[in-house]
């Protein structure tokens, strides 16, 4: 954690903001949270109590974390005097621009301004700012209190000191920041997820597999593989001793034909009905908080196993 980062404003107390608030408090930061939702205090308490059970490094005392998170009466009060602002409002560019205009007025001039946006371009987000040099995207992968990745996406006018400060800030939280060389809609992780999810929807619509079978195919193969070796490393090994070059020569023509045959489903009302219907039927007896906690425990176990395996390999 940067020596300079002691207090953080969290704008937006939804799925991502509440998770970030827990992470920040768990690392000793003073947190100020702002959201116009009337139940903000209640969701804060419920979420921190849940997330504190599944933090990397072991469970934490939720009451201690809640003691570091203050609900501010408005955005101006939240950002006043803080070192860092993490914005997690709704994914609407006009609204985010309005929030950043208010942040710019009320936060200290040197405060770092980070947006959790899943896909909006930082240059667009900072379009109306007087000090765009300090705004950049710090995009977590859900849930931020468990998964390590934060994509750092500078805009055209982001200054280098802000990129460096963001990297240092997230590293201090135990995260794995990856700085993109340039902004692109959806960044990297969500573009990949979109490409694969599009084909998932296509395969289910075509009746090749149902949603449960599709999920099983992924968790028993690509999911497991990619949690330890990325796509390029995996393919390099898949080519045998000749590596990726041999794989391209040997299997490339088939791969290339397959690229052309990938589906192009549209998110029509019928598609939404078919896919959502199958998923809802499958999980109809499961509660959201029970499912998210089970997910977090499983992912923490994978992270711990991966760390242990890497440690053994290094030794
Ligand atoms: N859900 C994900 O998987 C995910 C992952 C990574 C990043 N993100 C990004 O994080 C951001 C938040 O997404 P989410 O899923 O938490 O959404 P969400 O709908 O759960 O939460 C958004 C919150 O913003 C609040 N809000 C509305 N107006 C506000 C205002 N004027 N000031 C402060 N708060 C306000 C809402 O009341 C709500 O609680 C989005 O930009 C999204 O793209 C989401």
Polypeptide structure, described:
This protein has 315 residues and is α/β, with parallel strands linked by helices. It has two domains: 7-179, Rossmann fold; 189-284, N-(1-d-carboxylethyl)-l-norvaline Dehydrogenase, domain 2, CATH 1.10.1040.10. It contains 14 helices and eight strands. It has helices spanning 15-26, 40-51, 62-66, 75-79, 93-106, 122-125, 160-172, 189-205, 211-219, 222-226, 231-238, 243-261, 269-282, 288-314; strands spanning 7-11, 30-34, 69-71, 84-87, 112-115, 135-140, 149-154, 176-179. It has an eight-stranded mixed sheet with strand order 3-2-1-4-5-6-7-8, with helices on both faces. Nicotinamide-adenine-dinucleotide (NAD) binds next to helix 1 and strand 6.
What is the CATH domain class of the largest domain? Alpha Beta
CATH topology description of the largest domain: Rossmann fold
Number of strands: 8
Structural class comes to: alpha/beta
The whole-angstrom Rg is 21 Å
The low-confidence parts are none
Tell me the major beta sheet: 8 strands, mixed
CATH superfamily of the largest domain: NAD(P)-binding Rossmann-like Domain
The multimeric state of the shown protein is single chain
In this entry the ligands are: nicotinamide-adenine-dinucleotide
Q: Please write the string of helix (H) and strand (E) elements.
A: EHEHHEHEHEHEEHEHHHHHHH
Through-space gap between termini:
28 Å
Q: Main sheet: which strands, in order across?
A: 3-2-1-4-5-6-7-8
Helix content: 40-55%
As a percent range, the share of strand residues is 5-15%
Q: Which whole number gives the mean pLDDT?
A: 96
3D shape: globular
Number of helices: 14
CATH A-level architecture of the largest domain: 3-Layer(aba) Sandwich
| Number of spatially distinct domains | 2
């Amino acid at each position: 954690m940067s020596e300079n980062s002691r207090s953080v404003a969290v704008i937006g107390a939804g799925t991502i903001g509440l998770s970030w608030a827990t992470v920040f408090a768990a690392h000793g930061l003073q947190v100020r949270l702002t959201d116009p939702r009337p139940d903000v205090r209640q969701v804060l308490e419920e979420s921190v109590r849940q997330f504190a059970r599944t933090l990397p490094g072991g469970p934490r005392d939720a009451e201690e974390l809640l003691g570091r998170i203050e609900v501010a009466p408005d955005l101006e009060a939240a950002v006043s005097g803080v070192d860092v602002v993490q914005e997690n409002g709704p994914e609407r560019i006009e609204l985010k621009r309005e929030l950043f205009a208010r942040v710019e007025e009320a936060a200290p001039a040197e405060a770092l301004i980070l947006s959790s946006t899943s896909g909006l371009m930082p240059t667009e987000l900072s379009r109306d700012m007087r000090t765009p040099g300090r705004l950049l995207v710090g995009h977590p992968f859900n849930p931020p209190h468990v998964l390590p990745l934060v994509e750092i996406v500078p805009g055209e006018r982001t200054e280098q000191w802000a990129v460096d400060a963001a990297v240092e800030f997230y590293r201090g939280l135990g995260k794995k920041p990856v700085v993109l060389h340039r902004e692109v809609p959806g960044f990297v992780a969500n573009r990949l997820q979109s490409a694969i999810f599009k084909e998932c929807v296509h395969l289910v619509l075509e009746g090749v597999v149902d949603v449960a079978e599709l999920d099983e195919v992924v968790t028993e193969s690509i999911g497991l593989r990619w949690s330890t070796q990325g796509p390029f490393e995996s393919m390099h090994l898949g080519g045998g001793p000749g590596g990726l070059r041999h794989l391209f020569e040997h299997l490339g023509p088939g791969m290339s034909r397959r690229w052309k045959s990938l589906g192009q489903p549209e998110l029509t009302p019928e598609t939404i009905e078919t896919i959502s219907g199958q998923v809802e039927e499958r999980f109809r007896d499961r509660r959201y908080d029970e499912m998210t906690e089970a997910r977090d425990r499983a992912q923490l176990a994978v992270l711990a196993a991966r760390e242990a395996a890497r440690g053994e390999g290094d030794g």
